[in-house]
Specification:
With 338 residues, the protein is mainly α. The protein has one domain (45-236, 262-337): MFS general substrate transporter like domains (Growth Hormone, Chain: A, Up-down Bundle). Helices cover 83% and strands 0% of the residues. The radius of gyration is 20 Å and the shape is globular. The chain starts with 7 loop residues before the first helix and ends with a helix.
C-alpha cells in the first residue's frame, strides 16, 4: 500500500465506529426491558411467537427484510464500484466515512424525533429517501455518467436518512409487540437482518458479475420501495400496551416538535453515565466493531487486488466473503428468539 493510501485505515475505522455506536445502541435499548415471568417460563420453544400472534409485526419484519436486503447488497456494490472507478483504497475509506459521519452525529437527533413524531412515518421517509438515491445512482450508471463524487454524495445523503430512520425502526418493536414478547421479537428482528446478511451479499456479487452494477442498483431501489409499501400495513400508532407506548412522558413528547430536544439528549447521557452496564455494553461493542469490521470497508480493494483476476470475479468472490459473516450471527439471533 502506498504512503498516500495508508491513512485511510483510520478513516475506515472512524466509519465503522459509527456503525458500532448504532449496533450498541440497538442492544442497549433492549437491555433495560423486563420480560414477564409468565411468558418466559410457560413454554420451551417460542421462536416464532411474535410472528404468529402479532400480524403487525409480520408486516413490519417483511418490510424490514426488503430494507435489509437492499442495505446488504449495497455493502457489496458501493465499495466495489468506488474501487473500480478509482483503483484507490482511499476512495473506499472515503465513501464509507461519508456515510458514517452523518450517522455518528445525527443519530441523537433522530432519537429525539422518534420520540415526538410517528415512528412509522419517520422510517418510511428514510426508506423512501434511500429508494430515490439508489435509483438516481442506477440512472447515472445506465447513462454512463457516474463519477466517484456521486457515490460520495449518495453516501452522505443515505447516512442522513439512516440517522433518522434507524432510531424510529428500533423503537417501533416494543410498540408493536408489547413487553412480554419483546425479547422474542428482538431475536426475530435480528434473525431477519442476519438472514439478509447471509443471502444478499452473494446474490449482489453474482448479479454484478452477470448483469452489471446498474441492474443491482435498480433492484436495490425496488427493494427499498417495497419496504415503504409494506410498512403501510403497520399501524401508525400501534396499540400494544408496552411501557414505551403508554408512558405519560412519551405521550407528552409526542407532537411536542423540537421543544426540549436538547434536554432529552442531556438526560440520555446522564442516564448512560449512571448505568454502568449500558456504558460497558456500548464501550465493548464499539471496541469490537472498530477492531473487527474495518476490513469490510477495505475488502473490495483487497479482493480485487489479491483474490481475483478480473472485475467480475472480484464481484462474486466479495459477495461470498461477506455472506459467510451472516451465518454465525443468524444462529445466535435465533437462539435469542427461542
Amino acid at each position: 500500500m502506498s504512503a498516500a493510501e495508508r491513512p485511510i485505515a483510520s478513516s475506515s475505522t472512524s466509519a465503522v465506529a459509527a456503525e458500532g455506536l448504532e449496533g450498541a445502541a440497538t442492544a442497549a435499548a433492549t437491555l433495560d426491558r423486563s420480560v414477564s415471568a409468565e411468558y418466559t417460563t410457560g413454554r420451551r420453544f417460542r421462536t416464532f411467537d411474535s410472528l404468529i400472534e402479532v400480524p403487525a409485526f409480520r408486516w413490519y419484519l417483511l418490510s424490514m427484510m426488503g430494507n435489509w436486503s437492499a442495505q446488504q447488497m449495497q455493502n457489496v456494490v458501493r465499495g466495489l464500484l468506488a474501487y473500480q472507478l478509482t483503483d484507490s483504497f482511499a476512495a473506499l475509506g472515503g465513501v464509507a466515512l461519508a456515510n458514517a459521519v452523518p450517522r455518528l452525529f445525527l443519530a441523537l437527533v433522530g432519537g429525539v424525533l422518534a420520540d415526538r413524531a410517528s415512528r412509522r412515518r419517520v422510517l418510511q421517509v428514510g426508506q423512501c429517501a434511500s429508494a430515490i438515491i439508489t435509483a438516481a445512482i442506477a440512472v447515472l450508471i445506465f447513462t454512463d455518467r457516474l463519477r466517484v463524487e456521486h457515490l460520495y454524495a449518495a453516501a452522505v445523503l443515505q447516512g442522513i436518512a439512516m440517522s433518522f430512520s434507524m432510531p424510529a425502526r428500533q423503537a417501533m418493536i416494543p410498540e408493536i409487540v408489547g413487553e412480554e414478547r419483546l425479547t422474542n421479537a428482538i431475536g426475530l428482528n435480528a434473525s431477519g437482518m442476519n438472514t439478509m446478511r447471509l443471502l444478499a451479499p452473494a446474490t449482489a456479487g453474482f448479479m454484478v458479475a452477470i448483469f452489471g452494477f446498474g441492474i443491482v442498483y435498480a433492484l436495490m431501489a425496488a427493494l427499498f420501495t417495497l419496504a415503504v409499501v409494506g410498512m403501510f400495513r403497520v399501524p401508525a400508532n400501534p396499540t400494544a400496551q408496552s411501557a414505551s407506548a403508554t408512558s405519560p412522558v412519551l405521550r407528552k413528547r409526542r407532537g411536542a416538535g423540537t421543544r426540549g430536544g436538547i434536554k432529552d439528549m442531556q438526560e440520555g447521557f446522564r442516564y448512560l453515565g449512571r448505568n454502568r452496564i449500558l456504558l460497558m455494553l456500548l464501550s465493548v461493542h464499539l471496541f469490537v466493531v472498530v477492531l473487527s469490521l474495518t476490513f469490510q470497508r477495505l475488502a473490495p480493494g483487497f479482493v480485487s487486488e489479491v483474490l481475483a483476476s478480473n472485475d467480475d470475479q472480484a464481484a462474486w468472490r466479495l459477495g461470498v466473503i461477506l455472506t459467510v459473516m451472516g451465518g454465525g450471527a443468524l444462529i445466535g439471533s435465533l437462539a435469542i428468539a427461542s
